[in-house]
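Reading a protein record of the kind used here takes only a little practice. Each token is a code from a learned vocabulary of local backbone shapes. With that in mind, consider the following protein and its fold in token form:
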Amino acid sequence: MRADLNGLSWRTSSYSNSDGANCVEVSDDLPGAVPVRDSKLSDTGPVIVFAAPAWVSFIRTVHRRP
């Protein structure tokens, strides 16, 4: 199954740096899934869609890193 990514609202992740060099955008518009994209390539780059539990696991792991 492919997710329809048209018309999603995107926000810059709180884990992106402030100078715009390493920005990740995420959308909260798909129930049970988290689309992620590179803000520098927002119109042309790929979108990776994570299952919500996998995204939560990833964020928890990032929080534990020094």
